[in-house]
Amino acid sequence: MTAVVHSSLAGGRWQTFSLMEQLANVGSEVERALNWKERGNMEYSRLALERALELLGLTIDDPRHRSRLKEMTRLREALLDFFLGNNEFRSTERSWRGYFYAYAIAAAAQKSRTAAEG
Known about the structure:
single chain; mainly alpha
């Protein structure tokens, strides 16, 4: 992998985000990786995947999510299997989009509730 891309997030800002926001951001990078893969630009797809894995690593390292460590590391394993492995988990582009879309919706709803309360 390349050097840290999200240095301000790695510096502690990532831990100010909720789990929903963190995974929605991971999902944004996965979406980019899928889109570039569809367009045949494997280099850009790989770079987006690296950014997604970096953000997922920050999520895994977030002490608030210790009870979800197995889930998060399995997510990383499945992403790597889909993009770089033999796709033994039988993931599809559609299943990845659906998985992360749920987090994007939840994060947006959470943000909306917070704005309404404040």
